[in-house]
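Morning. Coffee machine broken again, so started the prediction first thing and wrote up yesterday's gels while waiting. Chain of 258 residues, entered below exactly as on the submission form.
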Amino acid sequence: MSELSKRIVTATILLLAVYGWYAHTSSPWFERGLALIGWAASCELVLLVKLRQPLLYIITAMAVWIAFAIEPNIALLLLGCFGWFALFVLLSRSKVASFGDFFAAIWIFGWLFVFALAIADTHGSVAGEGLMIGSCLAVWASDSAAYFVGKAIGRHKLCPAISPGKSLQGALGGLLFGAPVAVACWLHWQVLSLWPAIALAIVTIVAGMLGDLSESAVKRMVGAKDSGNLLPGHGGILDRIDAIIMAIPVTWLLWGLQ
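Came back before lunch.
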């Protein structure tokens, strides 16, 4: 099977599975499924940045996500970060460890947790689910448009130190194609009125681009091409949610201010 065929088959199965879970699972099983995904992504993250004694970090993350499955709460993020840093200090007593690698892990873990919290908080609400669906579709549309526009007319690099393949022209193309998708979804589900929807859509797309660059920076730092190999043709879980891992929390937090 070719690499393209693998990507298509994996993407189709993944899309159907996620849709079935998101649309047809109720509490508490929804939160349990979300916690399982969060823990799997956390394990992938720990292995990606090569933290010393990874099993200890994985067990600590498991405790946090089990608590999340019982009752999603932002306080759990602080406890998880506290636990991880305590481990880092204890494991660094005998041998100097890279704080840069640890900070990268905490950075991604923080966004991952708030990403899961946003999904849990909005699930079951028509407007909330519309917000999430519109955000995801817009970011994915933006990502695809940015690739094709950048390939066609990309001249100026967006951030060559992190991701040499991305261009300013591609980013603008992604914004122009992605923002209308979010606006259309949010107007359809009556999430926001027109002008607030346009403003938030722009922020969502930009946040998605920054999320993509964020994970790219971590992978470049540790010398990895993909975050994992769980998804054939796509890499790991973090590779699939790298853009929305930042776009969803930012969109959710700003939407909550209205």
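Strands lie at 157-159, 163-167. Going to sketch it on the whiteboard this afternoon.
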